[in-house]
Inverse folding.
C-alpha cells in the first residue's frame, strides 16, 4: 500500500523537531512575513535553514507558506522574500495569490523548490487543479469543502504527476476555504493578510437598534450562541477512505499549536497509517486507540467536515466556546545526565505527582516525581514558573526530545 505523506504544522523550531521526531514526513511553516498566521511564533530565515537541515538529515521535507493575498504595498517585500527563499531552498512554497505565483515562477531558479497551491485559492474542481498544473504547480491543496466523492473524481481527471493535499485534522473555518472577512470587519485585522483574531469563536446575540444594551439570544439559551463556532476536523478513523480516494498528502492544521498538541496528533496519525499499511483489519481494530490518544491534547468536539456530505447543524457548537483537554504539557526533555532529565517546564507540576513520558513509538511511560531540583540543583517542592529550569530523575527509556505530559480530567478552559 502506498501511504500518503503525513504533513504537520510547525509554529517554531521546537515544534518542527517534535513533529519530525513523532512521525511527520514533512512540515509546513511560516516565515516572519507573508504567511497567514502572523500570531504564530514563525521562523526567521536562519531558523528556516536550521529546520531544513534537521528535516533533510532525517529524510523529511519542509514547506514554507507565502500564502497571503497581496496588496501593491506588499509586492516589493514579497519579491525580496522570494529571492531569499530561493537561496534557502525549502522543498516547496505554499502560494494562493496568482501574482505571487508568477513572481515565484520567475525567481525560483534553485531547481529544488516546488510550488504548492494553498487551500486559500478555493480549489474545488479538477479544472482548477489542471489550471495550476499547466502553470507549473506540483501540488494543489483541496478546499476543505470537498467530499470524498469529489476528491476521487478530481484525482481521476488530473495528471498523475499532480499531487493532491487534503486537510484531515484540526480547526475548521466557517468561511469558504478560510477566506474570512469577520476579523477585518470587527477589528481591522485581515485574516487574508495573516492577522486573524478568530471572531468565529466569539459569543453572539441580537440587539434591536432602538433598544441598545438589550441583548436577545439567537437561540433559546441564556448564554447567547456561538453561531460560527465549528467543531474540529478529525479523520483518524477514516484513513482507509482517504487512501482509497488517492490523496497524496494528509495535512494537520495548527501553525499556532504547541509541541504537545503536534506531537500527540502526529503520533496518533503515524501509528494509524502504519497499522493501515500493515493490515486494514489491524487499523480498524485500533481506531478507538487513535481516537483516545488524540483526546489527550486540547481540542474541540470533533466532526468529519464535508467528507461524507454537507455537514448538518451538529458540526457547530452553538452553546459554548470551550476546549476539552486530556493532558497538560509539562515540557520536553532537553538533556539527560546521570539519570536526571533537564527541562524548561511549560506548566506547573509538583513532587508527588505522576507524569508521563510520551515516546515517539507510541509508548507512554509513567514517572512519579519523588524529587525536583531547580537550576542551582536545590530541592524544590514544585515548578510554578513557566520556562523554569528543572531537573528530576527519569527511567532509562527516557531520551532527549521526549515530551512530558500530565493526564487530566476533561475540563473547560
Amino acid at each position: 500500500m502506498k501511504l500518503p505523506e503525513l504533513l504537520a504544522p510547525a509554529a517554531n523550531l521546537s515544534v518542527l523537531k517534535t513533529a519530525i521526531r513523532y512521525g511527520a514526513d514533512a512540515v509546513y511553516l511560516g516565515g516572519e512575513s507573508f504567511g497567514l498566521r502572523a500570531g504564530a511564533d514563525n521562523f526567521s530565515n536562519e531558523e528556516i535553514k536550521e529546520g531544513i537541515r534537521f528535516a533533510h538529515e532525517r529524510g523529511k521535507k519542509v514547506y514554507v507558506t507565502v500564502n497571503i493575498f497581496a496588496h501593491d504595498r506588499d509586492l516589493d517585500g514579497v519579491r525580496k522574500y522570494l529571492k531569499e527563499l530561493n537561496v534557502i531552498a525549502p522543498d516547496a512554497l505554499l502560494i494562493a495569490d496568482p501574482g505571487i505565483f508568477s513572481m515565484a515562477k520567475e525567481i525560483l531558479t534553485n531547481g529544488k523548490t516546488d510550488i504548492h497551491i494553498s487551500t486559500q485559492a478555493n480549489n474545488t474542481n479538477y479544472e482548477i487543479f489542471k489550471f495550476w498544473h499547466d502553470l507549473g504547480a506540483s501540488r494543489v491543496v483541496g478546499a476543505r469543502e470537498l467530499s470524498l466523492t469529489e476528491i476521487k473524481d478530481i484525482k481521476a481527471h488530473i495528471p498523475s504527476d499532480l499531487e493532491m493535499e487534503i486537510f484531515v485534522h484540526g480547526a475548521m473555518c466557517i468561511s469558504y476555504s478560510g477566506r474570512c472577512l469577520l476579523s477585518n470587519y470587527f477589528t481591522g485585522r485581515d485574516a487574508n493578510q495573516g492577522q486573524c483574531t478568530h471572531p468565529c469563536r466569539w459569543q453572539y446575540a441580537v440587539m434591536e437598534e432602538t433598544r441598545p444594551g438589550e441583548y436577545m439570544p439567537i437561540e433559546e439559551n441564556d448564554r447567547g450562541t456561538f453561531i460560527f463556532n465549528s467543531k474540529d476536523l478529525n479523520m483518524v478513523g477514516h484513513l482507509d477512505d482517504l487512501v482509497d480516494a488517492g490523496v497524496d498528502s494528509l495535512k494537520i492544521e495548527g501553525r499556532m499549536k504547541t509541541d504537545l498538541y503536534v506531537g500527540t496528533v502526529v503520533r496518533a496519525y503515524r501509528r494509524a497509517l502504519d497499522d493501515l499499511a500493515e493490515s486494514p483489519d489491524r487499523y480498524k481494530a485500533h481506531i478507538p486507540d487513535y481516537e483516545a490518544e488524540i483526546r489527550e491534547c486540547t481540542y474541540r468536539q470533533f466532526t468529519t467536515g464535508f467528507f461524507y456530505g454537507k455537514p448538518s447543524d451538529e458540526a457547530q457548537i452553538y452553546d459554548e466556546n470551550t476546549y476539552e483537554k486530556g493532558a497538560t504539557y509539562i515540557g520536553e526533555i532537553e538533556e539527560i545526565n546521570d539519570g536526571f532529565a533537564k527541562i524548561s517546564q511549560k506548566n506547573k507540576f509538583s513532587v508527588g505527582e505522576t507524569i508521563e513520558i510520551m515516546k515517539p513509538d507510541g509508548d507512554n511511560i509513567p514517572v512519579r516525581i519523588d524529587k525536583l531540583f531547580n537550576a542551582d540543583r536545590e530541592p524544590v517542592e514544585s515548578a510554578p514558573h513557566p520556562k523554569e529550569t528543572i531537573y528530576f530523575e527519569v527511567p532509562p527509556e527516557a531520551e532527549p526530545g521526549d515530551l512530558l505530559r500530565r493526564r487530566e480530567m476533561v475540563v473547560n478552559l
